[in-house]
Amino acid sequence: MRELLRAYFCRRTLVSIYNLFFTLSRKLLTSFPLSLLMPKSNDDDVAESEAVPLLDLAKPSLPISFPIKALQDLKSRSYFDSFHFQFNRSTVPLRRDSDCLPNRPRVLVCHDMKGGYVDDKWVQGCENEAGFAIWHWYLMDIFVYFSHSLVTIPPPCWTNTAHRHGVKVLGTFITEWDEGKATCKEMLATKESAQMYAERLAELATALGFDGWLINIENDIDEEQIPNMKEFVSHLKKVLHLSTPGALVIWYDSVTVRGNLQWQDQLTELNKPFFDLCDGIFMNYTWKESYPNLSAEVAGDRKFDVYMGIDVFGRGSFGGGQWTVNAALDLLKRNNVSAAIFAPGWVYETAQPPNFHTAQNKRRWILLVCMCFLSRWWSLVEKSWGIVQTYPQVLPFYSDFNQGFGYHVSLDGRQLSDAPWYNISCQSLQPLLEFNEDNKDIIQVTVDAREASFNGGGNIVFRGKLKGDAYFTTRLFKPHLQLSSSPITISYSVKSDETSNLGILLSFSSPSLETKSILVAPEDPIRRFDDMSLQCLTTSVQTVSEWTVHEASLVMDGHTLTEISAFCYRPENSTKSAEFVALLGHISVKDHVQNQQNPEILLPASSWVIEAHNVELVPGNSSSKILRVKLEWRQKDLEESAFTRYNVYAENVKSTDLRPRKVLEKPKSETVLLGIAHVPAYYVAELVVESDVKAVRFMVQACAEDASLGKLDEALNLLVDLEGLSVNHD
């Protein structure tokens, strides 16, 4: 009993203090219902109190993600009037096979990172390459974005990349303490008001493209309003399931059917009525060893919908969380219930670097250490729970191993920018790299954003010792691709010297469940390895900048591609003992017939419409000016674009000749990559133009799923004439 009270009071005290501060800060903002405080910088060396002025969300500015903090704003639908609304839509659909949750114990991961909306709030990305990211999507089924605001809407970057990996994304609806009780009293005043607010939440999820809500009522409720709370939950589930098949409503174990805030830590008669109305329950994390089994018995055939909470910070959580999180996971797996991992950002938040001389070195050290520690921590989850997501499952398949941050941006082997960046929406399908804590492997395998990239800012680096005829293999992906009689083409890019070779090893399963492996490599090394018995497919080779692109085609009718691995080896008769170093820039698998029937990337510029809105010219430094403009484009005769990614460029036009550029005409000046859009719109906020610049030409290059690009000279483009614009001295 004393242990239970200690955990209860510890949590209640901490959350009360937090919410006291939160409530006071809310009161300071009551006169600005459409405003948000935005930090000047997310660098650790900048005081949190240094913030830019309040931002009017109705006016054009750099697109941001933000929560809804007041019930009135939810009711009035003011979010949809925000300038930022259209930028916050997720455009990557959930993988087709992920609509229904698997009939097995599942893993839910609940984001809780410094209160939410940190670097991830910048929809078009920011310059903090050390921002928090997750790339172990193959270890989870559901991702919840959490903060202590009333309506926590997931930034689209999380939904885009989670959907790409087959993971569902939920927002959070939370009420807390005295303010929360008042909110619930208003929301649940009548059955009709409960239904109306449920419909508002369903509308947000459907319009923005995420998959449902975690409902967390952390305050007492008047018992006579419990029927309306049940109506709120059941109506939300009903409306969501109609508008978004496969959507989820998950209840947090907090308030009971008697209206008391009383965490149960297990499924009981006090919280089961809410469980019966929704798609699952997230149990509070101070449960005891016997609770998972007891909860499974109460849930019956819905035991997989019981998600037992685990606080990674360890606050009263079974097993202590942190580096012993596997203790709780192992127990849950044995009891055949699901797990809800809360705050995996603990690894990131608690990393303490040494006292380096410069902030830049400190930031880079933090990034490297956190990446290593994150991989090590997630390896505990994998060892305990195993891989729960396998991908790719459809063609075309493409990955350049981009983790959503980096130090540069490349395109087809050419570096376009050397500026640091962070944009999780850019994360491509992530490899299922194996973490080797003992470092026994002769080759170390890492993703290192500091090294060169073929596309984006990612790669896989293979580095170590490899002598004579030794070879090294490691898992990259666990696909489930059923192949037809149509040929498939495998291509991959490598940067290495003449002493280090890299091939791709493909594993197949036949209809009779026989296994077969084929090595795709620039030469046939198999005869040199006595313990290898497999076919080798020699690639064609093309040099692009410092990269070598390998390509080969094959037919595996009726087979299923089950694993993609890297194969490291030395060239024949190599006598050098130099370190083995090879960079894998990308890998893709395409279906010939599908590729020929998919001409979307060849759409001419004439099939698009592009417009400039909110054009503004303001004074800059000296004689320069700053151009601000919102670009919007669409495909003619289509309501929704078939693309989910666009490269946006600009070029200065200094000539007085402002005629539209002819197709295939070369740019007259340097073309600069401004950024990447994931909706058919982009806001240019601070484009500096010198006094001799007469116009700016913007170009939008659509990117297909397999990373195919149209030629930039043929891209959709728009000329903005500066000479007719008046300078706004704001």
UniProtKB/TrEMBL annotation:
Top-level taxon in the UniProt lineage = Eukaryota
Q: What class of enzyme is it?
A: hydrolase
Q: List the EC numbers from the record.
A: 3.2.1.96
Its GO biological process annotations read:
N-glycan processing
Q: Which GO terms describe its molecular function?
A: mannosyl-glycoprotein endo-beta-N-acetylglucosaminidase activity
**Record's keyword terms, sorted:** Cytoplasm, Glycosidase, Hydrolase
UniProt subcellular location = Cytoplasm, Cytosol
What are the residue boundaries of the Cytosolic endo-beta-N-acetylglucosaminidase TIM barrel domain, all occurrences included?
Answer: 118-408
Reaction(s) catalysed (UniProt annotation): an N(4)-(oligosaccharide-(1->3)-[oligosaccharide-(1->6)]-beta-D-Man-(1->4)-beta-D-GlcNAc-(1->4)-alpha-D-GlcNAc)-L-asparaginyl-[protein] + H2O = an oligosaccharide-(1->3)-[oligosaccharide-(1->6)]-beta-D-Man-(1->4)-D-GlcNAc + N(4)-(N-acetyl-beta-D-glucosaminyl)-L-asparaginyl-[protein]
Q: Which residues form the Cytosolic endo-beta-N-acetylglucosaminidase C-terminal domain?
A: 604-720
Keyword flag Transmembrane helix: no
Q: Which InterPro entries match?
A: ENGase, ENGase_C, TIM_ENGase
**What's any one GO cellular component for it?**
cytosol
Similarity-based family: Belongs to the glycosyl hydrolase 85 family.
Protein task: Endoglycosidase that releases N-glycans from glycoproteins by cleaving the beta-1,4-glycosidic bond in the N,N'-diacetylchitobiose core. Involved in the production of high-mannose type N-glycans during plant development and fruit maturation.
Protein name per Swiss-Prot or TrEMBL: mannosyl-glycoprotein endo-beta-N-acetylglucosaminidase
Which organism is this entry from?
A: Arabidopsis suecica
